[in-house]
Amino acid sequence: MRNTFLGLLLVVAVAFPLAIAGAGQAADSSKALDERVTKFLERNRSGWRDMNVPDADGRALHDIVLKNGYKRALEIGTSTGHSGIWTAWALAKTGGRLITIDIDEGRYREALRNFKEAGVDSFIDARLADAHDLVPRLEGPFDFVFIDADKEWYTNYAKAVIPKVRVGGCVAAHNVSAPGRWRGQGNDYYSYVTSLPFLETTIINGQLAISYKKGDR
User: What CA–CA distance (Å, rounded) separates 127 from 94?
Assistant: First the structure.
């Protein structure tokens, strides 16, 4: 019995410092990533084109993912990676991963370079594909979905992904406003998601529709 007790003490004596060291290394790694992403975003703040989200909306996506501890995310419409970097940065802290899709090879290749330079590429599964075809075939569940692709297809995307979003999850869509603000395909999407009683939808930053899934029906 005494030998067993001493053996347990030895295990604890060895394991505890290792655990502390591991936690310290993880904290250092997280701090290093924060610094790398922050510098990248600051350096490129005024250079985003090709239908990327503005900085305020990227930050909003990051905060939603981080606040809710989301881990499995889908982005429909990568562009050159601005929103994906913000989302993946949050997922790096929650232990999650992002699937992002774009049909344009030029934007896709540029996004890959940006993901790598920002240091978040290991948290992203970037796919060059037609989202019309791929999205319905993706397996859920997802915690978080961001839609920022062809506006006339927003409602179709929503119909394909909402059943795959877990209760408590979120679907966000860019360039959407409530009817009466301006005319466009975004209004059709807004009308659809607000017709679903199990979604709670608000507009933030004037164009970002945020829908939380409160139930399945």
Answer: 22
Q: Let me know the angle formed at the C-alpha of 30 by 61 and 145, rounded to the nearest 5 degrees.
A: 25
- Does a structural domain hold residue 168? yes
**Is 29 a domain residue?**
no
Closest CA to 162 of 208, 134, 188, 199: 199
Among the residues of 44-151, which ranges form H helices?
55-68, 82-94, 105-118, 131-134
> What letter represents residue 159's amino acid?
K
Full strand arrangement of the beta sheet holding 165-174: 124-128, 97-102, 72-76, 142-147, 165-174, 208-213, 199-204
Write down the pLDDT at residue 50.
Answer: 62
Average pLDDT of the segment spanning 103-132: 97
Report how far Cα 211 is from the mean position of its chain's Cα atoms.
14
- For residue 62, the enclosing domain spans 55-213
- The structure's pTM equals 0.84
Q: Out of 3-12, 51-60, 69-78, pick the least confident.
A: 3-12
